[in-house]
Amino acid sequence: MKTKTLILILILLHPLAILHAEQHPGLFLTPKGVKEIKSSLGKYPTFDKSVDELKKIADEALKSDIIVPIPKDGGGGYTHEKHKNNYYEMSAAGTLYQITGRTQYAQFVRDMLMKYAQMYPTLGLHPAVKSDTPGKIFWQALNDAVWLVHTANAYDCVYNFINEKDRSYIEKNLFYPMAEFISNGNSKNYAVFNKMHNHGTWATAAVGMIGYVMGNKELVDRALYGSNKDGKTGFIRQLDVLFSPDGYYTEGPYYQRYAIWPFMTFAQVIQNKQPELNIFSYRDSILLKAVNTLVQCAYNGEIFFLNDALTKTYKTQEIVYAVDIAYKNDPANTSLLDIARQQESFVVSDAGLAAAKALKKNKIKPFTYHSLLLRDGQNGDEGGIAILRAGEPDKQTCLTFKATSHGLSHGHYDKLSIVLYDNGNNILPDYGAVRFLNIEPKNAGHYTKENYSWGMQTIAHNTVTVDETSHFDANMKVSSTYHSDIQYSNLTNSDFQIVSGVENNAYKGVQLQRTTALIKNEDFEFPFTIDIFRVNSDSVHSLDFPFYYRGQMVSTSLDYQKYTTELKALGTKNGYQHLWLEATAKTDKSNTSFTWVNGNRFYSIATISNTNSQFMMTRIGAGDPDFNLRYEPCFMIRQPNVKKHTFVSIIEPHGLYDLSKEVTVNYQTSIAKIELLKDDHEFTVVRIQTKTNKSFLMITVNSNFGDNKVHSTIIDSKNISFKGNYYFKKYMK
Amino acid sequence: MKTKTLILILILLHPLAILHAEQHPGLFLTPKGVKEIKSSLGKYPTFDKSVDELKKIADEALKSDIIVPIPKDGGGGYTHEKHKNNYYEMSAAGTLYQITGRTQYAQFVRDMLMKYAQMYPTLGLHPAVKSDTPGKIFWQALNDAVWLVHTANAYDCVYNFINEKDRSYIEKNLFYPMAEFISNGNSKNYAVFNKMHNHGTWATAAVGMIGYVMGNKELVDRALYGSNKDGKTGFIRQLDVLFSPDGYYTEGPYYQRYAIWPFMTFAQVIQNKQPELNIFSYRDSILLKAVNTLVQCAYNGEIFFLNDALTKTYKTQEIVYAVDIAYKNDPANTSLLDIARQQESFVVSDAGLAAAKALKKNKIKPFTYHSLLLRDGQNGDEGGIAILRAGEPDKQTCLTFKATSHGLSHGHYDKLSIVLYDNGNNILPDYGAVRFLNIEPKNAGHYTKENYSWGMQTIAHNTVTVDETSHFDANMKVSSTYHSDIQYSNLTNSDFQIVSGVENNAYKGVQLQRTTALIKNEDFEFPFTIDIFRVNSDSVHSLDFPFYYRGQMVSTSLDYQKYTTELKALGTKNGYQHLWLEATAKTDKSNTSFTWVNGNRFYSIATISNTNSQFMMTRIGAGDPDFNLRYEPCFMIRQPNVKKHTFVSIIEPHGLYDLSKEVTVNYQTSIAKIELLKDDHEFTVVRIQTKTNKSFLMITVNSNFGDNKVHSTIIDSKNISFKGNYYFKKYMK
After folding, report:
1. What global pTM score does this model have?
2. Interface pTM (ipTM) of the complex?
3. Which fold has domain A372-730?
């Protein structure tokens, strides 16, 4: 079908869409926006800087030969990086053509597109295979889609510059076949295009965007409503399915960051092209919610490490896109400008300029991190993640508590795991993914095999492993059919925040129940954590409970034996093969403490112990033939031969270690004693005594939950009665 | 002798000194300075902030009970930290009394001094023993001296406030006996007071300062000219002996930082009290030189890790003192203001105000790091440290080359070792000291035993260990009688900087000769290093040459075997007991490469190898029963059974790893081949070929050095003739 004919059909069928469909540029930039940007240059230094960055890329490109190599290499390799560079260059040059009117930029885009159009029909599937959906320009169809998203923008910007003959050549040889390949090139690509998954989002965004530029309603509708155009798949359906009602993306924050890019990008295009769809209001403004949720899933601007994750900050381009576009479509949310300020860059588009202008006008509402419960699952009924925060912004204590569904192929077997940040540092980290993205010698930039043998396994996380076996025996299919549940939570009292989760299916016949509270109290220097982990079974098991910590070990109440001339791996499978056993200890004391230093603060874990408890200090790094792991330390409690056991621990930041001023204060835990006074199906009752002789009583209910239910129990011959799911009080004997 | 009588004698004997001797305050603050500070409040925000910090300390102190505990604990323990806190509080309160006139501050100082004066006569030696010079208030006489330096300032500030009776009581019971104890309390203290060592500097500064406040010429002269007042010891003599003519302090930069505090502090006091001594001009302005040298011994404001060293930046209070006082006494050196700006704090004193005022007036000359050769030894003839720098300020490549004398008790056995920084990161680090300063559970804050068994040993450093034995068999007495030598250096051509050092005595019958060049060249992305390490002997030896690296291993040309289920320590002594052997490799190739990533850049070592070469990947952490070590990795070359061997290596930063933009460029070394074309007593000739087919020839002379000597040698049948000690050129066949 010829473009002209198509446009004609569009005009007849879709009167509202026409106005916008014919306009170029019309994806990220509009003629009005271009005019505004031109008249704004020199007024908004950070926006100017972003323009300059594009200019640097485009000017560099203009100086070089246009090279469009035959696809050959995987991620990190030459042809991969070259094609990636090419789309950045085209997008930059196209945008600059609009802003400056310099025809050289447009010629560059046209000439490169012509080269791609010459090559594309000759291409078979990419020779490097990454997944079962190979691309043509890249090793994965996913990367082809990303290429097309950027290139659609470039083409949109120079559309009116290119003569009709060349346009026709490019569309016929490159864009149509590519859109066809991505959406329907083979059964795998078809499946991905119609899948509820971030790869599907990239695919629909790519096809939809090039469809809009070419004025091809068929492609646009395919993108919006799925291959069958029945709305059962496609971009709009993804909005229904891929986010929970709280805007949480089931794969976790790292992939939420990645997915948000095509979501917000394509949504902005839809908003420009079919404003009547009110895409940003769709499903109670789910996309705007998702952006807010994403920026909340961070500590000091660094996205949480949950499931497969690498280090990513607010400054990544995808979050710049997300924030600028979210602000443009929700200008009342001025706290987004505070993020834009931290990002120190803008998308060079209508949305970016809107954010830059507003920021200049000092319309900022300071962005603040909140404590949040983010429900998982399309309907919000598949568990969730709790984020508990306390203390001053920069030095905030932040604890995440994970009780979600599996999280698709990037999920980890880490039910009820916690991560702790404090004072600007990651104190009890999650390992994240074992991957060296785009580093070719590291398994071609893929996830390494240790991602599966280590990163995903339960023992790699701050939660309980039963019988040295991962949750659901590390079977994703099984794990994906279940989810943990949040039993109760209360995050509204900033002095006492609590969340309680349960996992009934990770091990047959074993119930895991964890209740974690973050407490600000005048008798403690900093917010501290009470952590109660109950394991219940009718049969005998061995429990391993690791605390991965960052920093230098300082002291412990244990009389441990460390291996100094020889180390052995702790096990042979399920992640244990990746731990060196560095030291072991037993104790006859009812309490055990372990202290380390990180930054200028000390941290202690004080935990209830008994003569049956075994303690291990381990270090990641065994079973690592290719130097793929980070060799980080761990303090681990093993409780063998138990049917029921409850770990009760206090995780406490304390003191000051100022090496610059050579000042040390409070290097010891302030906890004198932790006692488990009661632990049954109704209640767990814990008493804490500090070294300054303050006592605290904490009770969590273990069943019969309800904010308005009244409970009572007898402690030390005294009746204690309380309403709701928990009780915490300074204790008087 | 009563104070009044003494002053009378002083008046008679020392007419010039009188004027100043009677003035209070007169140490750091002068009446003129106080007046100026008062009228400046509110004008210099950073200075105000420093005043506020003192105010916070002092006001907090005023609210609390005055507690002067009986000395009991070591560093990090309660009484230690309390007494330290007390002197900070007194100094702050004294200073604020001068600035605000509030008598509560003065009362506080007086009352605390009275308590000290009551306690001091009852004290024996401190019960916790650190060194053979125990203190009374602290575990070391050193700390007592530091206490007195601060307290002398406090006393000076409130001198006129305290009535004569109380002054007399305080001086008689506290200051006189303390000054006496520090300078002459026992034979050890006497020896330290008269020793050419930083402990002696603190001791003389303390005694001299309290002497000035009390108007006691005896104490002052003792401090300035030694116990015998003959100038053979004492503060002035220290200026002759403890710094090299280049202002380098033989213990190394970390201790230069510590020593500079009493040096500059006391010098400022002397300048105020006896300006006729022109102390800052003494010995060609050695103190001002020493401050400049100190700030040059840093990378991005972090003091070099050489010998015993922990992390210290420009922001430490001692460097704030040094910079403010240096500027006050050398106002032409406005680049110091750039350091003051980075420090973001000032001493609340005449000097601090002078710096703050000048900084406000924008008199800054940007501080720049230079390449430098710092000679060691009183006469500058005991080897030295070369600092080679290239590239943009923040991302500068910086290589240190150590060929000094031993460096007293804090010296390491690391002749000809190098350290490399690049792109803001420490790439090839020096381990520094094994110590947790002021952390009581870590060997009471002392150096741990691993400082001796690991930190000081040769194998812990980026230099060659012969026969698995440390230099001088780790015997400090022997090591201290020798020093390495700089054979030649040229740091003036920013495109090609070179230094060559030799060590003839570390091993009997073995000569170590290292020549290292830092090169900026258009065929390389970043400055790179050529490193030629020659070992010469008539007998057979085994050589170990480690490269400690920071970052994640990426790739190597070696087919290595890594231990995955069991690790063993590499050895049993001389530091080898602290290395886990992680992997081994052999090769039949003439070149070997090893690549890692740190920050957003890749690094490769390319090195000449042969079938006799053994390669080991090791990790620090064995033999560490108390978790005192950092578990860092190392790439090590072993050349067994050689009489003569020359290691030739290229250390090359390359590429870009931008995880935020997901861009990877040039992850492989650009070196294709390194050849050793000639290696004899006259010349070492190296040819380097890049993967882009560029060739370079480098020659270093190994004897017959001289900038004007002409050498010639035949390479590839061509005669190459050159003047000076080296030759480097793009090579044409």
Report:
1. 0.94
2. 0.93
3. Beta-galactosidase; Chain A, domain 5 (2.70.98)
